Structure formats: C-alpha cells, structure tokens
C-alpha cells in the first residue's frame, strides 16, 4: 500500500471523509474549530457542506487527504491558528507570537485503520504547512499514556504519534477530551 497525502482541494473527497451520510445532517464537517462558534451554530444541514466546498475552491485548502491509489482514506485539518478558534481558546495557551499553524483533527476511515495512515497524515500536514510558509505547526493531542481512547474522540490525535513525528511538548493545557488531558505539541519548521 502506497499512501499519498495531497492538499484537500477535491470537495467530493472531503465529503467522503468528513461529510454526513444524509446531506441534511448537522455533522461537524471539521468546522467546529475552524469557524467562530456563532457561525458554526448558524450553518445547518447542506449549508455546512456548501461552506466546506467553498473552502476547497479557495486557497489554501482546508487540510490534507491521504489516498490509497485514488481512494480517499484519511483526513487532517490544518490551517493558520489565527484563522481558527484556537486563536481565542482560553484552555490552550499561546506559546509565543509566531504565526503558527494548527493541526487539530486526524481521521482515518474504518477499514483502513492500523496501517500507518495517521502517521502519513501528520507528515503530510507538516509538509503542507511548511509549503504555505508556516514557521511552526502545533497540535493539541490527547496525553493518554497507555489508556485506551474512544475512536470517536481520538480525532485530536495521540501525543505519542506526534512525538514520533518530531513534535515536542511545548505546554500543558487545561483542555480535556474524553477524560484525557490535551497537551500542546509543536514542531519548528524554520
């Protein structure tokens, strides 16, 4: 299996990975951290997908997609922190004034897990941010140690996977997800 990670500019592939089975459903579409809370609550049903379609058409794309051949098998959301709710998040600190990028969601489709795709997505998101001129990239994964994590809540990633990708612990946070503390991990790209 040769996994290739590319910018998420093909809306149909993004829909396959983060869209709902029913077009009218109010699922995340990976918008929860990307847009202000008020807008996130106002966008309902198909309007959520239309918003993401516009993100795919304009630059930079809203993340990266892992492909196994032509099949989209994984997603990672990555954008400048200043363009996300992490810019104003009181639970996740700012380490310094660098215009860092945030990597906040990693999702691998069922049937494709435990094949290294999340590692490929992290590497692809890093390269995408670097190509866009990011001086550093941050993630806010779960610090779960050896504890099991519910797959639904594992979207933030796991600390050990980011350490494996060269990220280092930059700060503790007061954010907790699925009963596990989140930590701020960072990789300098300069």
From TrEMBL:
Pfam families reported for this sequence: Acetyltransf_1
Domain (N-acetyltransferase) ranges: 3-190
Lineage, highest ranks first: Bacteria, Bacillati, Actinomycetota, Actinomycetes, Kitasatosporales
Superkingdom assignment: Bacteria
CDD domains in the record: NAT_SF
Source organism of the structure: Streptomyces purpureus
Protein name: N-acetyltransferase
Gene Ontology molecular functions: acyltransferase activity, transferring groups other than amino-acyl groups
Gene3D superfamilies (alphabetical): 3.40.630.30
């Amino acid at each position: 299996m040769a996994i290739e990670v590319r910018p998420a500019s093909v809306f149909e592939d993004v829909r396959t990975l983060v869209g709902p089975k029913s077009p009218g459903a109010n699922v995340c579409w990976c918008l929860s951290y990307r847009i202000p809370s008020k807008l996130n609550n106002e966008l309902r049903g198909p309007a959520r997908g239309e918003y993401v379609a516009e993100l795919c058409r304009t630059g930079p794309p809203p993340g990266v997609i892992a492909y196994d051949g032509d099949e989209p098998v994984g997603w990672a959301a990555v954008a400048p922190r200043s363009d996300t709710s992490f810019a104003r998040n009181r639970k996740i600190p700012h380490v310094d004034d660098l215009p860092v990028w945030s990597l906040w969601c990693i999702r691998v489709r069922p049937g494709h897990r435990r094949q290294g795709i999340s590692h490929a997505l992290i590497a692809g998101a890093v390269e995408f941010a670097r190509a866009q001129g990011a001086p550093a990239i941050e993630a806010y994964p779960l610090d779960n140690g050896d504890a099991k994590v519910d797959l639904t809540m594992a979207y933030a990633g796991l600390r050990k996977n980011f350490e494996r990708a060269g990220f280092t612990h930059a700060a503790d946070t007061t954010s907790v997800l699925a009963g596990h503390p989140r930590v701020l991990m960072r990789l300098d790209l300069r």
